[in-house]
Structures are given as structure tokens and as C-alpha cells.
Amino acid sequence: MHYWICTTCGTQFAQSAAPPQDCPICRDKRQYIGHNGQQWTTLAALQKDGFHNTFKQHEANLIGIGTEPTFAIGQRALLVQTAQGNVLWDCISLLDEETVASIQQRGGIKAIAISHPHFYTTMVEWSQRFDAPIYLHEADRQWVMRPDERITFWSGESKTLLDNITLVRLGGHFQGSTVLHWPGGADGKGLLLTGDTLQVVADRNWVSFMYSYPNLIPLPASEVSRMRDTIALYNFERLYGIRFESVVAADAKNAVLRSADRYIRALESRLD
């Protein structure tokens, strides 16, 4: 019996003797089945196959955790360190003893919050190891492939965790897609952690909004407008996205608002 992991998105499934037929998350139009067909691995195999996690101090009390070589969609997690305890934002598939020890040295994990299903990965393994609850939006319940009593499904438009950290349902990419707002970050100017609900693009002064990134399916202007109006209520100086380099380093709130306006103009007319 194994907890099988999809190699394309990194999601871990409930225990079974044989791998599932396919991964519903990757079969969904927002993702894809790999070119070589559905492939599976396990956490034990990842630990033995030369994968390891690296830590990067982005700024005071914010640490990125990513896997090398790149696995799944290349996502990385973020450890938010507060006086009331640490929050793990988003999740990666690989968890090993070195990672556990490094995080314990930094104060452990008090809560886990995840933006959307492409980051669910081995969240239950992380939750069990650090004795930390997982917070997911109720709208994305159907995408949980390994149910567990440690998962708390929240509803509504926002949920406050410790140290005034707020989870905000922004929608767009998934119905329950969530971002994390930390007003105490960036020396009190505020941080926004987004996964790819707001995708930091190559020109890191801008972000984008998509229903599917790999399959290039846009969102309607009305949805982007709603997302813009929702996040306009929060102040933040910097924004951290899906990967180590996905950072809007300054004036991030205005970057998001003008990006939304540009996107809407592109859909409704044209860009000059």
C-alpha cells in the first residue's frame, strides 16, 4: 500500500495498493497529463532519487522552501515567521528529515494554508509531521485527493489566522483560490503571498490572471475586475508568487491594480 504522488502536479493520493488510473487535478482543463502519460511516484522514492529542498531567506521572517531538481510544477512554499507561530503558505511534495530539522530550528509550523489544488501536494504529511492544521477554502473541497481530519475547510471571503494574517478568497484560477495577506510583513508595509492566483510575469512589475496557465485559457474581464476590487481593500508593498524568482519587489499593490486594468483593456479592446 502506498500514498501515490502524481509526478505532473505533485499531488499525493489516499493509500492504495496500485496507483490511481489518473489524476483528476491534471485531467482538469486547467492542468494536463504529462507527454509520457500519467506517471506516479511516492514520497519514499523522491527521498531516494536525489531530490532535496533548499531554503532561501527572502526577507526578514519570510523563507522560501523549494525542491531541487525541479519537481511537479516547480512550486515552492513560504514559511511566514511570526511571534505567535509560523504559517506554511502553500506546500511542496518533498518532505524529508533535513527539511523537518531546518523548519524545527526556525520554530516549526503552527498552521498550513494553501492557495489552490495545484499546491495541495503532500500537505497531509506536513500536517502530521508538524502537528499543524491545514486551512483550505470550502469551494475547492472536491480536489482533495487525500482526505484527513486535520483539514479545516473555511467558507466566505476571508479568514483570519494568527498575527493578523488573513486568507482572502480571490477566485479566478479556481473558485476557492486564496491569497495570504500579512500586514506585518515588509516592515509593516504588508506582504501578499499569491501562488499563481496572481501570477508574477517575466517583467516583475506586472502580474497576470488566468483560468489556466499551461493551456492559456484567459479569465473574463468581469472576473478580473472582481478580483481587482477585492484585493484593493488590502495594502501591501511586496508580492511573492509561485517560484523563488516570482517577486514584485516594490509598489506591489499598484502593480496588481494596473495589471488588472491592462488585462481588462486587452480583452475589451486592444493594447497599444
Q: Could you characterize the architecture of this molecule?
A:
The protein has one domain: Ribonuclease Z/Hydroxyacylglutathione hydrolase-like (Metallo-beta-lactamase, Chain A, 4-Layer Sandwich), CATH 3.60.15.10. Helix 6 runs antiparallel to helix 7. It is of the alpha+beta class and 272 residues long. The protein is 22% helix and 27% strand. It contains 7 helices and 19 strands. The termini are far apart.
Quick take:
Helix 6 packs antiparallel against helix 7.
Helix content: 10-25%
CATH architectural grouping:
4-Layer Sandwich
- What structural class should be given to the helix and strand makeup? alpha+beta
CATH class type = Alpha Beta
List keywords for this structure.
single chain; 272 residues; alpha+beta; Metallo-beta-lactamase, Chain A; 6-stranded mixed β-sheet
